[in-house]
Amino acid sequence: MIYQAVIDDEVMSADRLDAARLEAIVLRYQYRLYRYLVRLVREPAAAEDVFQQTWLKAVREIRRYDGRRSFDTWLFAIAHNAAVDQLRRTAGESLERQELELSSTAPDALDLAMMAERSTIVAAGMEALPALYREALALRFEEGMKVEEIAEVTGAPLSTVKSRVQRGLEALRRQITSRCRKEDLL
Amino acid sequence: MKKCEEMGGLMALSSAGLLDAVEERELREHVHECPGCAAQLQSFVAIAQGLGSMPSPAIPADLAIRTQARMAEELTACADRRSGAVLAVAATLIGWASWFGIWDLYRGLTAGIDAMLRPGWPGLWACGAISIALAFLAAPVTAALVRARRRERSMV
After folding, report:
1. Which residues contact B143 (CB under 8 A, 6 or more apart)?
2. Which of A34, A53, B58, B61 counts the most CB atoms within 10 A of its CB?
3. Which residues of chain A have pLDDT under 50?
């Protein structure tokens, strides 16, 4: 909380943003923001572009930032919007469509493979998911955001966010299971 | 079987920590009695743990520096836009306000100080034309000044 307060203090005085303050803010958020954007837009070059757009938009909008709101969600909401625009420009991807139909019975027995290279397998599985789910899972599990915060970032209702997390996990589980079967890991 | 189907939807949410206490307890009780669902829940928990420890993408070393440079440019541009707008408004106001001043000055110079305090018409149109021309000139002159300053900055 103290860390957050320091960030907020810096941002609240952003009217007089100088290079040192900017540096501190960008440097503190660069890893989280870049990671989120890579998960969402997948292409590192596109993520770089959206990363810069996000900060430029933040500079332009800083006067509208309400200090009572969390800076994290404010910044990530800007990043979300920039990423949505990027995805719209990219052929074949968008955040609006693609709610996957889930089969009711997914196969089990995943544990052995998961024990070995769990996070690498999960990361590979994540890449195959639709952007909506990638985003919900990244914000929940990597950024540790609450459902309310994710809703604020994405502009979606709470129930939708919960549903995206649930469906994302189920789709990821199916994804990993089928991958493991193909590779004869099970 | 029906219970298993009902619980199926809760497992992913449980692994994400998004169930309320009642639902969580109900799920745990079921899983305790159902090995199939227990295995399924375990796989969701494993995925959730994997999601939390995925390798982070390597960030380009100079991305922050490049971003900061662009932010600095943007800040300068924002400041220019603000000061340009303020200058334009101020110059226009001064131009319009000068209408009254020039009119009084003209009368004082041509008809004496007393005439400055008395209303009258001689030269009104000439003064009006001059002051309106000044007012209309103020905005483009300000724009030219701001543009020149921007160009100077970009050259630096």
Report:
1. B84, B88
2. A34
3. 1-2, 17, 97-107, 186
State the Cα angle at B96 between B95 and B102, rounded to 5°.
80
CB contact under 8 A, B68 and A26: yes
Mind spelling out the 3-state secondary structure of chain B?
CHHHHHHHHHHHHHHCCCCCHHHHHHHHHHHHHCHHHHHHHHHHHHHHHHHHCCCCCCCCCCHHHHHHHHHHHHHHHHHHHHHHHHHHHHHHHHHHHHHHHHHHHHHHHHHCHHHHHCCCCCCHHHHHHHHHHHHHHHHHHHHHHHHHHHHHHHHC
Contact of A135 with A95, CB cutoff 8 Å? yes
Q: Does the predicted model carry a pTM greater than 0.90?
A: no
Average pLDDT (B130-142) is 73
Q: Residue B51: which of A35, A141, A166 has the nearest Cβ?
A: A141
- Chain A's closest residue to B66, CA to CA, is A52
Q: What digits encode the pLDDT tens for the residues B74-107?
A: 888 877 777 777 877 887 777 767 766 676 677 6
A vs B, Cβ pairs < 8 A, gives 127
ipTM score of complex: 0.77
Per the listing, tokens 């919960």 go with A162
Cβ of A26 within 8 Å of Cβ of B47? The answer is: no
**A44 and B CB contact within 8 Å:** yes
| Shortest distance, CA B63 to any CA of chain A (angstroms) | 7
Taking only residues 22 to 51 of chain B, the set having a beta carbon closer than 8 angstroms to any beta carbon of chain A reads 36, 39-40, 42-44, 46-51
